[in-house]
Amino acid sequence: MLRLIPLFVIAALAAGCSPNSSHAFTSGRSSNLCTQNIPACADTSASCELDSTQYIDFRFPGDVTFLVQSRAEDDIQVELYIKTVVDVGQQTVIYWNEPGCSDYYSWESKGEDWVAESRESNIFSQRKTMHQPGEHLIEVNSDLNGELLIGINVLQPGQSEL
């Protein structure tokens, strides 16, 4: 019986260190409560400023908005770590806005089960190239019923995903 306890402890520790765990996603990042009201565009505000050292824990359905600083031609990669999903919903949209919302780019699920695409890693990511330097408003809107962790990476031209 004493030999089973160490094996159980090792198994539990290994599960917590899995590259697919929420701990692995948040490691080196701090939680951002994202509860501010920061003017971002004419009629739009952001709930926080986010960088690659932070993450947002958000319960959907709903939408979350945040600002990301980047240079011209950098890619902003939005990562969604799936903690829990009750229902994937019908529509998830990510918007990347140029500074001042002068232009935007989007990714839409169009009813497809994007959560199924990320079952192996629990992480779904999309990236878009920003053409102007400055603060970019990022919006994630979804009718998904569940809890996601949201992180970003700002990648220089030619840099592969982190």
Task: Please write out the topology.
Layout: H1 4-16, H2 22-26, E1 30-31, E2 38-41, E3 44-46, E4 54-70, E5 75-87, E6 92-97, E7 104-108, E8 123-129, E9 134-155
Parallel strand pairs: 1-4
Antiparallel strand pairs: 2-3, 4-9, 5-8, 5-9, 6-7, 6-9
Task: Give a structural overview.
The protein has 162 residues and is mainly beta. It has one domain (22-155): Jelly Rolls (Sandwich). The protein contains 2 helices and 9 strands. It has helices spanning 4-16, 22-26; strands at 30-31, 38-41, 44-46, 54-70, 75-87, 92-97, 104-108, 123-129, 134-155. Strands 1, 4, 5, 6, 7, 8 and 9 form a 7-stranded mixed sheet that branches. A two-stranded antiparallel ribbon has the order 2-3. Strand 6 and strand 7 form a beta hairpin. It is globular and about 35 Å long. It starts with a helix and ends in a 7-residue tail after the last strand.
CATH architecture: Sandwich
CATH topology: Jelly Rolls
Strand content: over 45%
Query: How many strands, which pairing sense, and closed or not: the largest β-sheet?
Result: 7 strands, mixed
What is the overall shape?
globular
Please give the domain count: 1
- The total count of helices amounts to 2
Distance between termini? 43 Å
Gyration radius (Cα, Å) is 17 Å
Order of helices and strands: HHEEEEEEEEE
The overall strand count is 9
Tell me the helix content.
10-25%
Any low-confidence stretches, pLDDT <50, length ≥5? 1-16
Mean pLDDT: 88
CATH class equals Mainly Beta
Derived structural class: mainly beta
